[in-house]
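Protocol step 4 of 6: structure prediction from sequence.
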Amino acid sequence: MAFRYAIALSGGIATGKSTVASLLALNGMRVIDADSISHDILDASTEWVKENFGDEFVDGSKVDREKLGNIVFSNTKARKKLEEFLHPKIRQEIEKRSIKQDSFNFPYLIDIPLFFENDAYDIKESVVVYTPKEIQLERFMKRNGYSKEESLKRIASQMDIEEKKKRATWVIDNSKDLKHLQRECEEFVEKIKVKYLEKK
């Protein structure tokens, strides 16, 4: 059975989830990354993308994710079509990797951006990377160069970060600088170790 020792790592767009995943890995946590699995599956599905969205969404042997993202974030029907195609495949691969990780009998993370939105994984515990909405918007616009309107649209396509924070088992606060974030990550790893060692 998959997900025995899994902890879902989630957050919102531009809350710093990838940075946190890297910092937690540096602190000894093992991480399964749903995003990179999704990218691999998408790049292996160029024919499907051409058939369903058009040739202009494929650049050579890879899917033009930015172009596809623009249509998917502005069109609910297109997003649903893509999610229905991708999610079962992503889940299958995550389950396979999870079973392997469970064999180590120690908690590990599964980085799932839409963990709360999709409710597709039987994972009991979760950690959310939290950034207040105004900082989230500011960081997203700076990082991606999108307009305020486009940025708000993309952020609104996911569950509100405050709601995710409420649902999470743990919260890693990323509203300050990198030093603060490193300390938050170290403290989280310590909590996991203490909790797990108490169980043993």
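Step 5 (inspection) to follow. The mean pLDDT is 94.
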